[in-house]
Specification:
Elements: E1 3-7, E2 11-17, E3 32-38, H1 40-50, E4 54-62, H2 65-76, E5 80-87, E6 93-99, E7 105-110, H3 119-124, H4 126-130, E8 134-137, H5 143-155, E9 159-162, H6 173-176, E10 181-182, H7 186-193, H8 200-212, E11 217-221, E12 227-231, E13 234-238, H9 251-262, H10 270-284
Parallel strand pairs: 1-4, 1-8, 2-6, 4-5, 8-9, 9-10, 10-11
Antiparallel strand pairs: 2-3, 6-7, 11-12, 12-13
The chain binds adenosine-5'-triphosphate and alpha-D-ribofuranose (RIB).
Residues 9, 11, 13, 38-40, 43, 95, 107, 109, 140, 249-250, 253, 290 line the site of alpha-D-ribofuranose.
């Protein structure tokens, strides 16, 4: 069983299902409204745990009702939340999601307490990091603290996986230097490398860009097309499962969390791990919401 530590965001998601995306200035009626656990970090942790990884979370919520609810949800999953701070005078992160009948979504986040995770807080929980097989991070929380977590991991020989989402143009070199695997989607790849990925040749070109800055493994998710990998001389595209997507929220998070639960630390089984991640996220896209849509291992084997 892999031990996975996620450092990152916890959000309360509010979703509106609409027949079509409203245009600027337009008012429309939603068909449904619901709230659920979300946040890229929390979703990845839930996906890892539901695939049986021993899962730890480092993050922060506000000392408010939403924070209490989010911590309860993660605890019910049996994710270790000892390193989730409850911060006074801060709001818990929130995401406002609109999903249309084509399964497209628009998401606006208010990061709140997620941006107040401090390097000191990370350092206080360094033993959790040092005992992990993988440490995973995204870009919805304080980047200085992610750098601290990855540095602790790297010094201890623990593998680091960076999901550079939502896209950020100027990623600190300090972070990339301590990243073992990068896992962007197509848009994030273009923003980070300047290379538009349209075919296998451009995917390989983007992978080489990342290798040249010292990142060992490159994994680019391609939505309904699956995922591309390039690691230690091995490369390929693992196709996605053909399904009818109704809401792709948390597809990428499910993919990464599920993959981390089965991946070997030398990345030697990356292709099989991607197949497993594809299977998990193919179920997520057929259901509504972030955490409620993430599958359990029993559904995947
Ligand atoms: P999101 O931001 O929607 O969570 P993402 O942009 O980070 O996702 P994607 O590349 O869209 O990531 O999708 C991640 C994985 O989810 C894909 O590699 C694929 O396995 C699966 N997936 C996404 N969309 C579909 C789909 N329509 N049908 C089947 N699988 C899908
Ligand atoms: O990746 C999906 C997540 O992005 C949602 O759960 C929402 O909270 C936003 O952070």
């Amino acid at each position: 069983m892999n031990r996975v530590t996620v450092i990152g965001s916890i959000n309360l998601d509010t979703t509106l299902r609409v027949p079509h995306m409203p245009k600027p200035g337009e008012t429309i009626h939603a068909k449904e409204h619901f709230t659920a656990g979300g946040g890229k970090g929390a979703n990845q942790a839930v996906a890892a745990k539901r695939s049986d990884a021993d899962t730890y979370f480092i993050g922060a919520v506000g000392n408010d009702a939403a924070g209490e609810m989010m911590i309860d949800l993660l605890s019910q999953e049996e994710i270790n939340v000892n390193a989730v701070a409850r911060l006074d005078r801060k709001s818990t992160g929130q995401a406002f999601i609109t999903v249309d009948d084509e399964g497209e979504n628009i998401i606006t986040i208010f990061a709140g307490a997620n941006m107040d995770i401090t390097p000191k807080h990370v350092g206080d929980y360094k033993e959790i990091i040092k005992k992990s097989d993988f440490v995973i991070a995204q870009f919805e929380s304080a980047i200085k603290s992610t750098i601290e977590a990855f540095k602790i991991a790297k010094a201890a020989g623990v593998r680091t996986i960076l999901n550079p989402a939502p896209a950020l143009k100027d990623v600190p070199e300090e972070l990339l230097e301590v990243t073992d695997m990068i896992a962007p989607n197509e848009t994030e790849t273009e923003i980070l490398t300047g290379i538009k990925v349209t075919d296998e040749a451009s995917l390989i070109e983007a992978a080489e860009y990342f290798h040249n800055i010292g990142i060992e493994a490159v994994l680019i998710t391609l939505g309904s097309k699956g995922a591309f990998y390039h690691v230690n001389g091995q490369t390929g595209i693992v196709p996605a499962f053909r399904v009818k997507a109704v809401d792709t929220t948390a597809a990428g998070d499910t993919f990464i969390g599920a993959l981390s639960s089965v991946l070997k630390t030398d990345f030697s089984n990356l292709e099989d791990a991607i197949r497993y991640g594809n299977r998990a996220s193919s179920l997520t896209v057929q259901r509504f919401g972030a955490q409620p849509s993430i599958p359990f291992k029993q559904e995947l084997i």
